[in-house]
Amino acid sequence: MEKINLHTHTTYCDGKNTAEEMVLSAIGKGFTTLGFSSHTMYPFAGDCHIAYKEHQKYADEIKALSEKYRDKIQILLGFEVEYFPPMSIPRKSTYEEFKPDYIIGAVHYNIHKDQQGPVDGSESEVRALVEDIYNKDARACVCDYFEAQRQMLKKGNFDIWAHPDLIRKRNGKLKLFDENEDWYKKELAETVKVAAKANIIAEINTGAIARGAMDDVYPSAYFLRLIYEAGIPICVNS
């Protein structure tokens, strides 16, 4: 089995290491392919996104590293594009000037009544999202999250679907909703129906384990079974 990771962040966005440090780490761990996917809302940018003027520099550095280490590892250029309508929708056409190898589509924020909050922020940020923006209606918050996923899958044009049930990240400690309830499972099923028509790859993402937020991957075992049964291909990313 080849060891491949296509979801990698660096100091260009919210990562803690440079791109070359990540390359050397991947080589040391025996990876055959490493794909970089810095957060972006191009041409806009938030705190955790590539700065507008850094996009070409980022693309050039990844391509230079690909050439430098071509005998040791395959390096790919990607972007993790924020779904934050109408400012940012994951579409390949927006990034074609940088010639990426692939695009990841991701939902990290809920937008509700002209307010927004992160679904994968700190415990206090997620609690504030539910209590202050949704008036303690966790179910409405979760349903809005999956509706955003469905809209991204319908409107976007990208290759990899990032951490499909990211909203679970803080639920283990905050106990905001029950994943076993019928309404929640219905949201997953409806989302998979849309994803099956989107010609994308869903990822199994281990980020919550690495960060100590959850002892589980995205998607959950139940969600993954639905994805599998729908014939959606899978990749495993850290």
Could you explain how this protein is built, in words?
With 238 residues, the protein is of the alpha/beta class. The protein is built from eight helices and nine strands. It has a seven-stranded parallel β-sheet with strand order 1-2-3-4-7-8-9. A two-stranded antiparallel ribbon has the order 5-6. The longest helix is centred in the middle third of the chain and has 18 residues, at 138-155.
Sketch the topology as an H/E string, one letter per element: EHEHEEEEHHEHHEHHE
Global geometry: globular
**Biggest beta-sheet profile:** 7 strands, parallel
Distance between the termini: 16 Å
Average predicted local confidence, pLDDT: 96
Helix count equals 8
Low-confidence runs (pLDDT<50, min 5 residues)? Answer: none
In percent terms, what proportion of residues is strand? 15-25%
SS-based structural class? Answer: alpha/beta
Number of strands: 9
- Helix content range: 25-40%
Strand order of the largest sheet: 1-2-3-4-7-8-9
Radius of gyration: 17 Å
List the helices and strands and how they pair.
Blueprint: E1 4-5, H1 19-28, E2 33-40, H2 55-68, E3 74-82, E4 102-106, E5 109-112, E6 115-118, H3 123-133, H4 138-155, E7 160-161, H5 171-174, H6 182-195, E8 201-205, H7 207-210, H8 221-229, E9 234-237
Parallel strand pairs: 1-2, 2-3, 3-4, 4-7, 7-8, 8-9
Antiparallel strand pairs: 5-6
Helix pairs in contact: 4-6
